[in-house]
Design goal:
312 residues; alpha/beta; D-Maltodextrin-Binding Protein, domain 2; 2 domains; six-stranded mixed β-sheet; 12 helices
Length: 312
């Protein structure tokens, strides 16, 4: 009996020893695998020492719409300079002007009104201007709801009106001038008014009944009319202003002359680049050309006339 127990114990010990050896082998195998030379890791990209190209777009369109339609074009422009684009937008035109003045951006797309103010304060220089529908001018459209009996600006007396921005040419200066010529001010003429801070927001306000009328950039209304005709279809144009110089692309006068020259060359030749053509078409710009500061003299005249009479 004792012999049988000893044999059994020996057998059990042998089994345990064998299992330990096997487990030990497995562990050694795993350790070897972990210690094998790893595939070389991908080298981190070299740090780009070139500063990004910072671009501001005035709030002519809401931030969401601006990004959708402008971002690819701005990225292409930056890429042509071997840089990456940093896009920025502010709620008001004055904020964008201040960014240009402080040289926080390399270039900016601004409205005609802010350009004349920026030029006067020596912080803006015109780089190029866009050509839209074969022209370098635009208008202020006075709009009202499609089904409204309102047929002219005069019919909006006592109504609610949407301006775009206090510095906007077509969205504030022009309609204020139109009222001033009639001996009125926005406060005396309208029951109430507000600032929408973009032309597409003003169109939306009229289309949805938040405003009985609005003054908007003709280029923006025509642009929205092509991409979202259901929205503009809820509005109607009741008056159209004379033409004014189209909103320009500007830089700070002290921008490095070499960079300024490179940017101008890129803009003036964009329409020749197959990659840029569809992006220009997307924002309904034919091409960019060199502008002339005298294009904005009528804007300055309106502003001066209003200031002399305390209407601005």
């Amino acid at each position: 009996m004792k012999s049988s127990v000893r044999k059994c114990s020996t057998l059990v010990a042998l089994i345990i020893f064998t299992l330990c050896v096997l487990c030990s082998c497995d562990n050694r195998k795993e350790a070897v695998n972990l210690q094998q030379p790893a595939a070389p890791a991908a080298s981190p990209p070299a740090k780009d020492l070139r500063p990004p190209l910072t671009i501001a777009v005035g709030a002519m369109l809401s931030p969401e719409t601006t990004r959708v339609y402008y971002e690819d074009l701005l990225s292409l422009i930056a890429a042509k300079m071997g840089r990456r684009a940093v896009f920025t937008q502010r709620r008001t035109y004055a904020e964008v002007n201040e960014m240009v003045r402080k040289r926080e951006v390399d270039l900016a797309f601004v409205c005609a009104g802010p350009y004349t103010e920026g030029k006067q304060s020596c912080c803006m220089e015109m780089l190029v201007v866009p050509v839209a529908n074969g022209k370098t001018v635009y208008h202020s459209y006075i709009i009202a709801p499609k089904g409204s009996p309102v047929g002219s600006l005069a019919d909006l007396r006592g109504k609610t009106f949407a301006f775009t921005d206090p510095q906007s040419n077509t969205g504030y200066l022009v309609p204020t001038y139109m009222l001033a010529r009639r001996g009125e001010t926005p406060t005396s003429f309208f029951h109430g008014f507000f600032y929408s801070h973009s032309h597409d927001n003003s169109i939306q306000a009229v289309a949805t009944g938040q405003a009985d009328g609005a003054a908007v950039d003709s280029l923006i209304w025509e642009f929205i009319n092509r991409v979202d005709p259901a929205l503009t279809g809820k509005t109607k144009i009741i008056e159209k202003s004379p033409p004014y110089g189209i909103p320009p692309v500007v830089v700070h006068p002290d921008l490095d002359p070499a960079i300024k020259k490179q940017l101008k060359t890129i803009f003036l030749t964009l329409h020749q680049d197959p990659k840029a053509v569809p992006l220009l078409e997307k924002i309904q710009i034919d091409r960019f050309v060199e502008g002339d500061d005298t294009m904005y003299e009528t804007v300055r005249e309106m502003s001066r006339w209003l200031k002399e009479r305390g209407a601005r």
